[in-house]
Amino acid sequence: MLQLRDLPTTAVLEKFAERYPDADITAISSFLHLLRVATDLSIALDTCLSKHGLLQGRWWVLILLMREASKTATPSVLADKAGVTRATMTGLIDGLEQVGLVERVYAKDDRRSIVIHLTEAGQAKLDVVMPDYYRRLRQCMQELDEKKREELHLILDLINAGIPALV
Amino acid sequence: MLQLRDLPTTAVLEKFAERYPDADITAISSFLHLLRVATDLSIALDTCLSKHGLLQGRWWVLILLMREASKTATPSVLADKAGVTRATMTGLIDGLEQVGLVERVYAKDDRRSIVIHLTEAGQAKLDVVMPDYYRRLRQCMQELDEKKREELHLILDLINAGIPALV
DNA sequence: TTGACATAGTTAGTCAGCTAACTATAATGT
DNA sequence: ACATTATAGTTAGCTGACTAACTATGTCAA
Q1: Spatial contact of B103 and B117, defined as CB atoms under 8 Å apart
Q2: N or C end of chain A: smaller count of CB under 10 Å?
Q3: Which of B51-82 are b and which e, b meaning 16 or more Cβ less than 10 Å from the residue's Cβ?
Q4: Cβ of residue B113 near strand C, that is under 7 Å?
Q5: Helix, strand or coil, per DSSP, at residue B59
Q6: pTM of the full structure
Q7: What is the per-residue pLDDT across B38-63, written as a single tens digit (0 to 9) for each?
Q8: How far is CA B83 from each of CA A103, B64, B75, rounded to the nearest angstrom?
Q9: Which chain D nucleotides are covered by protein, judged by CB under 7 A?
């Protein structure tokens, strides 16, 4: 995703709207603002995680495993939940297995399938990363009171409902 | 950016909050919701642009050039405004130049520098892409009234101000 | 004035995503 | 029962970001 360092001013958008009458200035402005803040958040998250030797992909896999009572899941399920292809998940698991945070366990009932297991080291890594992440995130959002958080939730759902119209 | 197909329920977050007391459940929920909607928007934008043979990077370069009265800018300035490295901008310009949407013009005053010029074909491409993009975006955001757009703006600014705390 | 540093753009190599094709195994319908 | 189809995971190769190193040119201070 681009970082959109230089968002258009209203004056620029008005100029564009003269040439392209379909332009809805506040819609464009909201859209770009949303993309920009989200990109900056994502970059900040990566920076935070990289201090612990993780990136978003691997970190998310660990979290998905921790959510399970058995601390295990198949690569296919993990891929679906993380929103990546199975091929990408193979790579993420390779990386995590090499540093000992997860292990591949071969299934007996279906010999095509394997399960990925969160190791003790993987859980220990989360026990360091998550408190740090949660503490930082709390600070990041502290100026947003509960009312604003609810407003945001509603607004995001409205935008989300409109996404099919964009494609 | 991950696609976060499977956001945690409040129940899952409460479970995590037991183990990690710093967890601020509505902050986490807002954060992930924002990232997810923005990612989906970005993917939808790419889908829309790809119908015109563009991706976000190249499209944004064309827009930045069109904003200028001279329809030109240097690669360095474009890189800064698009939030990519100069190396990446070299590649974006290569691609745009190959299909004739921009051209490199060698500067006389500073022989290190070149300027990138939006060609007639580049302007013509924008004149097709932008109305389509604006029309779709208007539809996508149509359920968001002006009041909600202002609320969103305010909320995003608050979150943005908190980002340094996340890094 | 000239040596050190700064700036503009490019090149080479890395990385994490992707698609498409592959192997192995399981499930299914005739 | 067995040929076809579906599923699980991996591999190979592509892409568009990135960093680091490079060439060429400009700037500035001793």
Answers
A1: yes
A2: C
A3: eeebebbbbbbbbbbbbeeebbbbbebbbbbb
A4: yes
A5: helix
A6: 0.94
A7: 999 999 999 999 999 999 999 999 99
A8: 38, 12, 12
A9: 7-13, 16-21, 24-27
